[in-house]
Amino acid sequence: MRGSTEQQIHIEQLKVLAHVGISETERRRRQRLVFNITLWPARDHRDIKDAITRTVDYSALCQNTKVFISQQSPKLLETMANDLAAHLLSKFRVRKVTIEIRKFVLKNAAYVSVTVTRQAALD
Question: Structural domains in the chain?
Answer without folding.
Answer: 9-119 (3.30.1130.10)
